[in-house]
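Moderator note: this is an archived Q&A kept for reference. The question asked for a predicted structure of one protein chain; the sequence and the answer are reproduced below.
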Amino acid sequence: MPKRLRISLASKCQLMFGAAVVLILTAALAVVALRMQALVQRGPNQRAQDFAQWWLADEIKFGGELNEIQQDAGGLPPGVSKAVSLISKDRFDHQAETDPFFAQAVELFQTRPASWELFTPDQDAQKQTYYRYARAIRKSDLARVQGGLAGGFKPAVGTSALTDPLEMVLLIHLRDEDAPKQRTLNIIYLVTAGLISGLLAIATFWFITTRIILSPVRLLHGYAAKVSQGDMNIRSDINTGDEFQNLSDMFNTMLENLKSNQDQLSSINKSLDLKLGELAESNVALYEANKIKGEFLANVSHELRTPLNSIIGFAEVLGEALAGRDDPKDEKRRRYAANIITSSRRLLDLINDLLDLAKIEAGRMELRVGPASISDTLEGLLNLIKPLAEKHGITLKQKHQPNLPTVHTDAGKLQQILFNFLANAVKFTPPQGTVSVEAHLTHNPNAGVPSDGTDPTHIRISVHDSGPGIPDEDQKRIFEKFVQLDPGVTKEHGGTGLGLTISLELADLLQGEITLDSSPGKGATFNLTIPLTLTEPTTQLMPQAASSSNPRTPR
């Protein structure tokens, strides 16, 4: 877009006022010029009328009748200022064939009976201006003259060309030597008056715009320029008693408010600088704490899990050694060994959960992307959870679309999420209940179903149980850390309340999402939707804590 031409306010005012002065003076002087020219033209016309009236009256006075006395010569000889001709209608019509003036007079007098004179300027052979005047003399005029009526050469009113035909025409050629001079003087006076008036008007407008309008504007512009350069202590001093003074006062008020706000901002900036220093120190402390936390995780991973694995191993060996003995004391020892194994495994699962959650929050969880078969994964998980389900009399069902494609994702993370779903479903399903697993292809849940009919890009795995269900107000709480809705079930089966929290974080790492469909008395359905191909996997710094082929007990 082209830039508009920038013109200063002073230039705009001067241009507009100058143009206004020129237009106003031109319009006013044009009216005066036209009127003066009309007055100059009217003088010869009036003299021709007066002379015609006098001549006709004089002819009647001394002769009593009108006779043709002279033929029109078509102009005035040099040095002659006036000539009179009285021509009959026939001769007048004959002259009209060659002279435009006569033709115009014939047309006027014959078509308009109320018209009785014609006056026009003309030029002779020497290009000098003279005036031609034609006076109509009709039949009624001659009748009044023959009757001795004085002043009978005024047009008859209410007559027509048929009842009052044209009889004669009085022609007067008149030269007015003063008319050109008058016109020239009029032009000189008008131009002089226009120039003087224009100069006075321009000078007056210039004084008004410069001293009354532009001067305060320039002062305000100067003050604003200094403020833009950073001088907030300057104040406007305009005492004109009008809107400019009000604008100056508002400008000063605005500067005072800006100065006050600037002082407040300066004070706030100083406080922010102190806070920033404190935050910097806190960040250094947090960095050190995070470093210590990382070292702690590395040490705990080895120092806690290694002794627990040893305890579990020795307890299993002890249980196997006591398996073939029938002594009542050995039965008690076997029960103690089983309790040691169960408690150690729960403690190991708790440690693994805490370590996984810490790694996820620290962004150190590693993704190992590879091909995975959904049908094989579901079959393996069902076989793994089957002993626990049979122990409580729960039926496991599997349903999925045939020929599901191979997904490219982290198989270990996927198994861990689904195992948590299955374990929770078995844990909260009453005896003789049912837990079912379904899998089918779908589209991106965030983008909706495309209208072009493209192939599905995601897979959805659902785990449904016939348990008591989850109320609406608790469906978000169960994904929070350490939240357990039924302490009695947790006390019986164990758990820390971290399983669903970790599953939600792992689903986000797999670029998927978890949804829950449940209502009291109708069971619960946990849905996991992941893409068929994991794009741009995030590789973390710390290796995965647990084996992907051995999902742990849910929490």
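Archived answer notes: Confidence is low (pLDDT under 50) at residues 538-555.
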